[in-house]
Write a structure and sequence with these properties.
Layout (H helix, E strand, L loop, with lengths): L1 H4 L32 H15 L3 H7 L2 H9 L6 H15 L4 H11 L3 E10 L2 E9 L5 E9 L7 E7 L4 E2 H16 L9 H8 L1 H13 L2 H8 L4 H4 L2 H10 L5 H13 L4 H13 L3 H15 L4 H12 L3 H13 L6 H12 L3 H14 L14 H4 L2 H16 L1
């Protein structure tokens, strides 16, 4: 959702955040040994601690990569030696500081957020929902499926990824089948539909994957052109297209359009449709999709920020103010909703409001403020009497130290 984030008046250089951390205080405390959720809340606390301490071994104790791979391999025909080798290779990429652990800790290092939202499911079959917001991209949700043996700590045995609309084991299985077929060519003729097509074009798909890893857009596009139309519409390939092409590239919009056309009821379609409608300037529809996503997540104050950005684009200033304040009231302790308020006040040239929000931000966050006279977007404010009051606020604060 880069397009939504780009709407805010930029002042990135002003913010001096502490090292990004998962807010362990957001994880509910156990009510005691008799609390049926005690094993699950303990897992959430251990998971957050593993990320905060950047401890891959602790993360691997929380997430059972082997169980995910076993689920992916279940029922797939293939030579024993191949299946063993596949599992060993998959374990290498999914554990030991790689895979999701690397993605989440990199997001934190780049100033993003990883936040626990809630436990869901029944007491005996819990899932833990986390929201990820990357500094350079949009929102993602990971829902960890938790399980435990008798007298054993809980572990995640699979992960539902909102942007792909499926579990990690399902995604892994998509790649396992064609690779197994290329190992045992007799298996190809036993496959049907897209699985067979994917297996027959696997060499090209491997080059496509290499292009994704190297972030080579043109190499990716070149290999993509070699695939038949039915494989270009494969869900996994479509999601790779969305990931690889930048939002201002027509191929990005085309890929989202094909996801909407061929997978209208897939859970991931809601997430990607927000950008689709926003880019079409159909703000009402974008807000409706955002509301659907919020309902799926069970409520998420961060989505109020994205809603505010859409309302800014629609020039619904009062609506943008309302949802930004709702995000703050809901406890979203980030500067993001305040930037919505700043943007609205500057666009409307309501500099009393700009001053008030800036002071509110200064009292709630640690900032190294830049000189507003050097920023084009702030020229109106910089020329106002309220800017002089802002400078006096900073001077008074400095004198009080």
């Amino acid at each position: 959702m880069l397009q939504l984030q780009a709407l805010l008046i930029p002042l990135v250089l002003a913010f001096a955040p502490a090292t990004a951390r998962v807010q362990e205080s957001a994880v509910p405390a156990s009510a005691g040994a008799q609390d049926p959720d005690a094993p699950w809340t303990a897992w959430c606390a251990d998971f957050a601690k593993a990320l905060n301490e950047r401890d891959p071994s602790a993360y691997d104790r929380c997430v059972d990569a082997g169980a995910i791979i076993d689920r992916a391999q279940k029922g797939v025909p293939g030579r024993k030696s191949f299946m063993t080798g596949f599992k060993e290779g998959a374990l290498t990429t999914m554990s030991g500081g790689q895979g999701t652990f690397a993605e989440l800790t990199n997001a934190l290092e780049m100033g993003g957020h990883v936040d626990f939202l809630r436990l869901r499911g029944t007491p005996g079959a819990r899932t833990a929902l986390f929201r990820i917001v990357r500094a350079e991209a949009g929102v993602e949700y990971l829902e960890f499926e938790l399980a435990r043996g008798k007298d054993e700590p809980a572990r995640a045995v699979d992960v539902y990824v909102a942007s792909s609309g499926e579990r990690s084991s399902d995604t892994l299985r998509r790649w396992l089948i064609p690779t197994a077929a290329n190992d045992d060519r007799g298996l190809i003729d036993r496959l049907i539909g897209e699985e067979q097509v994917l297996a027959r074009h696997w060499k090209v798909v491997e080059k496509l994957i290499d292009a994704v890893k190297s972030r080579s857009v043109e190499s990716f596009a070149k290999q993509l052109s070699k695939l038949p139309d039915e494989l270009r519409r494969d869900k996994t390939i479509l999601l790779m297209r969305i990931k690889m092409f930048p939002p201002d590239d027509p191929r990005y919009v085309e890929a989202i359009g094909e996801v909407r056309r061929y997978f209208p009821d897939d859970p991931c379609t809601v997430l990607h449709s927000i950008d689709w409608f926003f880019l079409q300037k159909d703000y009402k529809a974008a807000l409706a999709e955002l509301s659907r996503l919020d309902a799926w997540a069970g409520g998420d104050p961060y989505l109020n920020v994205l809603c505010g950005n859409i309302l800014v684009a629609a020039e619904d200033w009062d609506g943008a103010r309302k949802v930004a304040r709702e995000a703050i009231a809901a406890g979203l302790g980030w500067p993001d909703p305040y930037w919505v308020l700043i943007t609205v006040s500057l666009r409307q040239q309501r500099y009393d409001e700009t001053l008030s929000v800036l002071i509110e931000m200064d009292l709630n966050f640690e900032f190294n403020w830049v000189d507003f006279t050097t920023l084009e977007e702030y020229q109106g404010f910089a020329a106002s009497s309220q800017h002089a009051q802002w400078l006096e606020h900073l001077a008074e604060k400095a004198r009080a130290r």
